[in-house]
Each structure stands twice: as structure tokens, then as C-alpha cells.
């Protein structure tokens, strides 16, 4: 995620491959992404139970709006889908 205002309190990995929808809050433009198993995620300081994908390498087109929004707004992953949780 692009924001420099928050840091990770915890890190982990996705348990399995999962398909999620994401986009800017309040926007009608949403994306569907398949996040691979083992993708690195981080729990952001100041956000209640919000795990955000840290490794966006699975998005092939780095110049796409999808990549931009994933980088700036984040892709949230449910905590139940996170394994190997440890303090950052």
C-alpha cells in the first residue's frame, strides 16, 4: 500500500488462493483479483482487523488502474485467511 502514514504491526501470509473484490472506498469501480496462496500481508497500525496485501507481484500490468488502486487503497484479506502471523 502506498501510504506512509501507517506501518505494519503484524505480518503473515495468505492461507490459500482466494478471489477478492477491492477498490477505492465509495467508488463504483471495483476490481476482482485472485490472490495466490502464500502472498505476504500486513496488519496496519490504527486499522481494526484490516490485513492488507503487501506483495502485489501477482498483478501483471504494473501500469494498470487495477495496480494503482491496489497500491494506493489496498487489497483487504480476512484474518481467517491469514497464517504464519507474527509481530512485524
Explain this structure.
With 88 residues, the protein is mainly beta. The chain has one domain. Helices cover 10% and strands 38% of the residues. The longest helix has 9 residues, at 65-73. The chain is globular and about 30 Å long. It starts with 7 loop residues before the first strand and ends with a strand.
Count of β-strands: 7
Head-to-tail CA distance between termini? 16 Å
Rounded to an integer in angstroms, the radius of gyration calculated over CA atoms is 12 Å
Q: What is the H-and-E element order? A: EEEEEHEE
SS strand fraction: 35-45%
Strand order of the largest sheet: 6-5-4-1-7
Structural class given helices, strands, pairing? mainly beta
Average pLDDT number: 89
Q: Give the helix tally.
A: 1
Please tell me the total number of domains: 1
List the helices and strands and how they pair.
Layout: E1 8-14, E2 18-22, E3 31-35, E4 40-44, E5 51-53, H1 65-73, E6 76-77, E7 82-87
Antiparallel strand pairs: 1-4, 1-7, 2-3, 4-5, 5-6
Can you give keywords for this protein?
single chain; 88 residues; mainly beta; five-stranded antiparallel beta sheet; two-stranded antiparallel sheet; 1 helix; 7 strands; globular; disordered N terminus
